[in-house]
Each structure stands twice: as structure tokens, then as C-alpha cells.
Amino acid sequence: MMNSSSTGGNPTAEKIAPYVLLGMTAVTGLVDAVSFLSLGSVFTANMTGNILILAFATAHVSGLSVVRSSTALIAFLIGAILGGRITAPASADSRMRFAAKAFLLEVVFLSVASLCSIGYRSDLLEHSLQPLVLITFTGLAMGTRNAAVRKLAIPDLTTTVLTLTVTGIAADSSLAKGNNPRLARRVGSVLAIFFGAAFGAVAIRYSISAALTLATAISAACNAALFRSLRTSDKQ
Predict the structure, then answer these.
(1) Rg (CA), the chain
(2) In angstroms, rounded to a whole number, what is the distance separating the alpha carbons of residues 133 and 164?
(3) Residue 45 DSSP one-character state
(4) Cα(94)–Cα(114) distance, rounded to whole angstroms?
(5) What is the C-alpha to C-alpha distance for residues 224 and 219, in angstroms, rounded to an integer?
(6) What is the pTM of this model?
(7) How far is residue 210's CA from residue 208's CA, in Å, rounded to a whole number?
């Protein structure tokens, strides 16, 4: 269970927040499927992977690009700055409300990316600015969201990084003499990003725009549910 300080003291938001963040975790899978498979082997949500790819590109590994990976990193950092500025005034009782504003900006960035992806052709990767534009807007979206999620600090729901989540599943299991805390949430996070990435990989066979539009729609639905829960809490 989450305590009320994690969600800004809103009982309704406290109940809906895990589902919202799991939905956003699925969006991470979709976005990284698009960026890695169609935008030149970069990650715009997972910066651990992207920094590794940037290092490989710096070492002149074939097929990788310093420019694309650097663009992803810089866009993510700028997004994180924006998300940090939005959530900076938040108190313990208003974290979720400010995070919702940052999540709304994520929806805006993903919407722009969806529009910019119309007509995208991966065979023009090296001869077009369109991939860099898509990398930029998806990176901005993911950076903004991650800053807000970090502010919320809800255990096992980072929406992006799964290394500690997977470690927790094993290290806190009964096999390791643990009591399996938050097991459903941890497994849910792994499954959400897995199926998000799988659906993204299938969707881009037909259209990059379709995959990004799906990511935008899920993000918008999650944000709408969150805003509704906050309004419900205000009425109580």
C-alpha cells in the first residue's frame, strides 16, 4: 500500500495512482520500441541503455550514431528540467496534483511526435531531420514524466527503470527468505513494459505514427483518470 504522502494526501488518487503509472510504464515500452527499432537504435525513455549506446557509437560501432544518441540524451535532460520546474513548488500534500501537470505536458510532447511522424520512412534515416525531431519530442516527453515520477517516489513504479524492480522480485522472494513485498506491483511493471514494447514492435510494421498515436492515447487516458481522481478527492 502507498501512504498518503506519496500521492499528496488524496485517497482517491492514492487508489488510482498505481494503475496510472502502470499504464505509463506500458507507454515507455511503446516509445522505446519506436525509438530503438525505427529511429536508429536509440532509447528515448531508457537513459541507461541510451548512454551505453552513445558510448558504443563513440567507439565507432557500426550502425550507431553519436548525434542521435546525444539528441535523445539532451532532449531527455531538458524534459527532466521542465518536469522538475513544474513539480518544484509541490508540498507533501500536493505532489500528485503537480505531477499531473507534468504528465499533461508529456501528452502534449507525444501528440506533437505523433503528428511529426506522419509519413515517416525509416529508409531515409540518414538523410532526413525527421528522425531527430521524433527523438527530440519523445525524449522531452519521457524526461518530463520521469522527473514527476521521481518526485512522487512511489516504490516499484518508476515507469522506466526495471533493474531494481527485477532485483526486488528475486531478492525479496521466499526463495531468498523474503516476504515478497509489493510482488503484484513489481510483476505488473515488468509485464507492462514488456507488452508495451511488444505492441510497439508490431505497430511499427504498419506505421510509426500508429505506434506513437497509441502511446499518446494511453498517456492521455492515464492523465484523464488521474485528473478525475483529483477532482473527486476535492469534492470529498
Answers:
(1) 18
(2) 31
(3) S
(4) 31
(5) 9
(6) 0.91
(7) 5
